[in-house]
Amino acid sequence: MWESASKLSCLAGDLLESETRNGLLLIAISLVMLPVTMDLMQYHDDASDEYERECDINYRIYVLDNNDPIDGALCLEIEDEMSKRLVYFIGSIAILVLSGLCGIALVLPQGENDGKQPPMSGQLR
Predict the structure, then answer these.
(1) What is the mean pLDDT of residues 41-62?
(2) Report field, pTM of the whole predicted structure over 0.85
(3) What is the 3-state secondary structure of the chain?
(4) Is the separation of the CB atoms in 26 and 95 below 8 Å?
(5) 76 in Cβ contact with 104 (< 8 Å)
(6) Cα(first)–Cα(last) distance of the chain, in Å?
(7) Which long-range contacts (CB under 8 A, 24 or more apart) does 90-99 make?
(8) What is the rounded CA–CA span in Å between residue 70 and residue 97?
(9) Considering only 61-65, 85-89, 93-97, which range has the smallest mean pLDDT?
(10) Which comes out higher in pLDDT, residue 112 or 61?
(11) pLDDT exceeds 90 at position 125
(12) Which residues have C-beta within 8 Å of that of residue 52, sequence separation ≥ 6?
């Protein structure tokens, strides 16, 4: 009987270490994803700026002082590229946030009450 209890506590300890290790791994992934996300944001901003320069008539007239005709095929190509870059950026944000939150949830202590929490509001009387 005591052997099964010790094996169970050993397995619980291994599971706890495994969760902590997985949590730290997820936090590391989120830290790596932070500069990747920032680069993808800049990548999307570059496409947006290119779209303004090539296809936005107001920007071309007032800022660039350019009255040349707009190339519709080029504008469609830039729009497609801008949309693709936006999907990459949103995907990287999702990976960043989810891996960070899941990692923190796995690393933080959970489960048993050690008596360190304050009593419920009804028990204060």
Answers:
(1) 87
(2) no
(3) CHHHHHHHHHHHHHHHHHHHHHHHHHHHHHHHHHHHHHHHHHHHHHHHHHHHHHHCHHHHHHCCCCCCCCCHHHHHHHHHHHHHHHHHHHHHHHHHHHHHHHHHHHHCCCCCCCCCCCCCHHHCC
(4) no
(5) no
(6) 43
(7) 92/33, 92/36, 92/37, 92/40, 93/37, 95/29, 95/30, 95/33, 96/30, 96/33, 96/34, 96/37, 97/30, 99/26, 99/27, 99/29, 99/30, 99/33
(8) 39
(9) 61-65
(10) 61
(11) no
(12) 59
Query: Where exactly are the structural domains of the chain?
Result: 34-108
Residues in the chain: 125
Upper half-sphere CA count for residue 2 (Cβ side, 13 Å): 0
Residues near 33 by Cβ (< 8 Å), separated by ≥ 6?
A: 92, 95, 96, 99
